[in-house]
């Protein structure tokens, strides 16, 4: 689960992380009122969407020369102008894709004079099974570009969960950033507090870009991106209240209501599979046969009729879908139960695209019999290779 920048900063501030003063705004007038609460004379007006690259982004509705989603303002009128241009308009960034995202919220913060920018992130290092701090002197830039062009400028510091954050970790962060004296102490303190925030919120990622040194010698978080482990959110009811469903794909949001793992893709063959690994293999073999998957969809190990029906509806809601491949291995999930769900769902949604079903596992013969006697134009498949070939052939034949 991701949250907006203003929410991330408010959350980090509770752990003592230094952030500039700022206020969220849902309207132009709220943005202007927010600027009145700040000392000034410089303000920063930021579009709030779940995507990076806002500063370099472009608004679809505005002229090409219009500024991006992060604006500097020196007066209340300039704040008003920036807010008027941003709110309700669609911002396209390198991370949103061509469709972009509509800006429904703004964040007005106090401007600071920046002397130096750094990068600092916390994430789980899967190779070491530890929390890793990734730091770089090249703040304010895309970290992917830094990693590609100057990988020697990125340093990774692993933290043993048995000991937690120790003073030597703080010194390592300061050294990697080239900081000494009081700034080194501030860097160590900030890193320690970010580590506490990471653990305390069950975060998956905390990315600070930039972490800035101000002209008056203060270390401050100027931008923050925070994402949480969705599996741990039952422990954090307060964090769940920060969820902005308008930022999520409607199909993926609907899928989450039925505990379906769904991700929309750009292809034309819908997939319904149980098990993430099998789902990945199914998508790969569709591509090997010359077409592209329209989605990743894992129905899990205990799909009910209702769950299968919901999965079909979500797949078919995508206008690009020209055929569906169902690939089920029945272990805990029995093939006859799945077959009954497939037949009921196909009838309920009035299926009008080709459907190929491959079943294997517990009660597979019963499942195949149910499909054969359904009266529906369901094409059975013997194995995954056969299934992929048949759905591609069916889609081409129906075109």
TrEMBL record:
PROSITE patterns: ATP_GRASP. InterPro entries: ATP-grasp, ATP-grasp_succ-CoA_synth-type, ATP_grasp_subdomain_1, SUCC_ACL_C, Succ_CoA_ligase-like_bsu, Succinyl-CoA_synth-like. GO terms for molecular function: ATP binding; magnesium ion binding; malate-CoA ligase activity; succinate-CoA ligase (ADP-forming) activity; succinate-CoA ligase (GDP-forming) activity. Pathway: Carbohydrate metabolism; tricarboxylic acid cycle; succinate from succinyl-CoA (ligase route): step 1/1; One-carbon metabolism; formaldehyde assimilation via serine pathway. SUPFAM superfamilies: Glutathione synthetase ATP-binding domain-like (SSF56059), Succinyl-CoA synthetase domains (SSF52210). GO terms for biological process: succinyl-CoA metabolic process; tricarboxylic acid cycle. Its cofactor is Mg(2+). Binds 1 Mg(2+) ion per subunit. ATP binds at residues 46, 53-55, 112, 117. Residues 9-259 form the ATP-grasp domain. Substrate binds at residues 274, 331-333. Keywords: ATP-binding, Ligase, Magnesium, Metal-binding, Nucleotide-binding, Tricarboxylic acid cycle. It catalyses: GTP + succinate + CoA = succinyl-CoA + GDP + phosphate; succinate + ATP + CoA = succinyl-CoA + ADP + phosphate; (S)-malate + ATP + CoA = (S)-malyl-CoA + ADP + phosphate. The keyword Magnesium applies. It comes from the Bacteria. Succinyl-CoA synthetase functions in the citric acid cycle (TCA), coupling the hydrolysis of succinyl-CoA to the synthesis of either ATP or GTP and thus represents the only step of substrate-level phosphorylation in the TCA. The beta subunit provides nucleotide specificity of the enzyme and binds the substrate succinate, while the binding sites for coenzyme A and phosphate are found in the alpha subunit. Heterotetramer of two alpha and two beta subunits. This is Succinate--CoA ligase [ADP-forming] subunit beta. It comes from Sphingomonas jeddahensis. The lineage of its organism: Bacteria, Pseudomonadati, Pseudomonadota, Alphaproteobacteria, Sphingomonadales.
